[in-house]
Design brief:
The complex is a heterodimer.
Chain A: E1 25-27, E2 34-36, H1 37-42, H2 58-65, E3 71-74, E4 79-80, H3 92-102, E5 109-116, E6 119-126, H4 137-153, E7 157-163, H5 171-190, E8 195-203, H6 205-208, E9 217-220, H7 231-238, H8 249-254, E10 260-261, H9 264-278
Parallel strand pairs in A: 6-7, 7-8, 8-9, 9-10
Antiparallel strand pairs in A: 1-2, 3-5, 5-6
Helix pairs in contact in A: 4-5
Chain B: H1 9-23, H2 28-49, H3 54-61, H4 69-76, E1 78-83, E2 95-102, E3 105-112, H5 118-123, H6 131-146, E4 151-157, H7 164-168, H8 171-183, E5 189-198, H9 199-203, E6 210-214, E7 218-220, H10 224-232, H11 238-245, H12 249-254, E8 260-262, H13 273-291, H14 299-308, E9 313-314
Parallel strand pairs in B: 3-4, 4-5, 5-6, 5-7, 6-8
Antiparallel strand pairs in B: 1-2, 2-3
The chains are: A alpha/beta, B alpha/beta.
The structure holds zinc ion (ZN).
Residues 28, 30-31, 33, 47, 49-50, 52 of chain A line the site of zinc ion.
């Protein structure tokens, strides 16, 4: 594909996102190269040119992590209500319908059980495409159900986060999910069961400030944005531009908040190694 | 006060009139006039303050004369001694913590602290803690648990500080750890939202067995301005966002997020801080009395049940 390679231009940073139609080709968000979609997909949705990790949905995660891509989803019947009858420029109810049609009826997290390298595990994988992976009552309930299942069946927990934070349309109830899940995690910890948090791009706000930072191990994908307050909010507060790489996974490792960075291709093997060791198997 | 708080204007005018008359030499006719004005003020205060919109309540909750954590501590707790630092990095003046007695019972007290004048505001960082503030809070809570002392927290913050240094030192981790560890404390935790309950920074000292809220306090996942900026793409839509998010004590009681509402004086807490503080006292006393009947080992279980229920979904 060398004939397709474009010379890098200095004006690149101001370059506008060019919409590439769904089809054979894909433009990498990072290196801006046009890459063959199939090649990206076969490469675990990692750019073959620069190693950029594209965002992936929950079921793709399950495929990558469960043995032979075999798993059983649970907590599939929990769906968003509209507790506050929230309306901004649009009704929350209507927004939900659009996302359910476009992404699926699982809200912003899917939960599944299966084997990872021969071990029974529970994995929760967030769906960024569903309202920016925002956490409302459904995410809170599903993750809590998953944690309780781990305690019941004495299985380790893995949560793959990708979220813009709490879901404003459910107001305070979204905030309370942080407390609810963290309280459940305290019970999981008391039961001495492993919880590994996998942080992917982006993990922000209330999700970071609750379960995503509470892993026995926190493992990040390369270059993932991981933060409490987003870069824009901070720039507004301190009125200066932020240093390069601020709040990226590498920055968090440097500051002691994340245990290690693991490329997607090594994620399963890394998780398997730790879990076997923690479970003394 | 900002132009948004125009609803306070008639009350301020009356108060000024009363003050002026009171400053003059007393004579029977004037006293009658003063009494009439007082009556009018009381009636008007009640009228205005019982019809506040969620946005107006937000402004009341942020009122610069509203009693702050240290005012409550001075009035409700004896023998209070503040302690400092998280033993890891620094002390954070945006969050105060210490030990004292409540009606004779030794206890820990923790709360966000805002500043009243410019200098204090800077020192207190506008009541917005950094990670070391939350870590200090947890250190004191763990100490309380070690010595089997109940914990009182007072919530009054716009939110955790969104700054570069705070992020570097793990703002998210500090909050998250508090949520998990508070859930497991084997001593009574009594939370009172006295002013602004701003998001994760509020919740980080807000996981309690009882959550009490002042009548005009607010508690929300994001500030009305922040919500408006994101969802309405216009921060001027803050009043709409405040109404849509259901942030008032009255709404939160309905959806089961708080347990009790403490009435404020007719013109709001700032109109009579002394009385406000005293109005809270019996609520704290009753909560403590009830919780002391529960076995310490049972408290985390009860607390888990309480938060486990929160949320709304269809099955
Ligand atoms: Zn690339």
């Amino acid at each position: 594909m060398a004939w397709f390679r474009k010379e890098k231009k200095p004006k690149e940073p101001t370059e506008k996102q060019v919409a590439i139609p769904e089809g054979l080709w894909l433009k990498c968000d990072e290196c801006k190269e046009i890459v063959y979609r199939k090649e990206v997909e076969q490469n675990l949705s990692v750019c073959p040119k620069c190693g950029y990790h594209f965002r992936v949905g929950g079921r793709d995660r399950f495929q990558m992590l469960f043995d032979d891509g075999a798993y059983k989803e649970f907590a599939t019947n929990i769906r968003s209500g509209d507790p506050l009858e929230f309306r901004d420029t649009k009704r929350y109810r209507d927004r939900l319908k659009v996302y359910e049609q476009r992404v699926g009826r699982g809200d912003a997290v899917l939960c599944a059980e299966g084997k990872l390298d021969g071990l029974n595990v529970v994995i929760c994988a967030m769906e960024y495409d569903f309202m920016g992976g925002s956490m409302g009552s459904v995410v809170g309930e599903k993750v809590t159900v998953a944690i309780e299942r781990c305690i019941d069946k004495r299985e380790p927990l893995i949560i793959v986060s990708s979220s813009g934070g709490a879901r404003m349309q459910e107001g305070i109830l979204s905030l309370m999910q942080m407390a609810k899940i963290s309280a459940a995690l305290s019970q999981l910890a008391a039961a001495c069961l492993p919880f590994i948090s996998v942080l992917t791009d982006p993990t922000t706000g209330g999700v970071t400030a609750s379960f995503a930072m509470l892993g026995d191990l926190n493992i990040a994908e390369p270059k993932a944005l991981i933060c409490f307050a987003g870069p824009r909010v901070i720039e507004q507060t301190i009125r200066q531009t932020l240093p390069e790489g601020f709040q990226r996974a590498e920055f968090l490792v440097e500051h002691g908040m994340v245990d290690l960075i693991t490329p997607r291709a090594d994620m399963k093997a890394t998780l398997a190694r730790f879990l076997h060791q923690f479970l003394n198997k | 006060m900002s132009a948004d708080a125009a609803f306070e204007e008639p009350l301020l005018r009356l108060r000024r009139q009363i003050e002026e008359l009171s400053a003059q030499e007393s004579e029977p006719a004037r006293q009658v006039e003063i009494d009439e004005l007082r009556e009018k003020l009381s009636k008007l205060s009640k009228e205005i303050y019982s019809n506040l919109t969620p946005w107006q309540k937000t402004l009341v909750a942020r009122h610069p004369q509203r009693p702050y954590t240290l005012d409550y501590i001075a009035a409700l707790f004896e023998d209070f001694t503040e302690v400092h630092g998280d033993r890891k990095f620094a002390d954070d003046a945006a969050l105060v913590a210490g030990f004292g007695r409540f009606h004779g019972q030794p206890c820990a007290i923790i709360g966000h602290q805002k500043g009243r004048n410019t200098k204090e505001k800077v020192i207190r960082n506008f009541g917005q803690p950094r990670p070391e503030g939350f870590r200090k809070a947890l250190r004191v809570m763990k100490l309380a648990e070690k010595f089997n002392l109940p914990i009182f927290t007072l919530v009054d913050t716009q939110g955790a500080y969104p700054g570069l240094d705070a992020e570097e030192r793990g703002q998210a981790e500090a909050i998250a750890v508090n949520l998990r560890e508070m859930a497991a404390l084997k001593v009574p935790v009594i939370v009172t939202i006295i002013g602004e309950g701003g998001s994760g920074g509020a919740l980080a000292i807000g996981v309690g067995d009882r959550v009490i809220m002042l009548e005009h306090a607010v508690y929300s996942v994001i500030s009305p301005e922040g919500c408006a900026a994101i969802l309405w793409k216009n921060s001027a839509a803050a009043p709409e966002a405040a109404a849509a998010m259901k942030i008032t004590a009255q709404d939160l009681k309905k959806i089961g997020v708080i347990d009790e509402i403490v009435s404020e004086p007719p013109g709001g807490a700032h109109s009579d801080p002394q009385q406000t503080v005293m109005l809270l006292d019996p609520f704290l006393e009753r909560a403590l009395h009830e919780l002391q009947k529960i076995k310490p080992a049972q408290l985390p279980e009860e607390r888990y049940k309480k938060f486990r229920k929160m949320g709304h979904y269809e099955k």
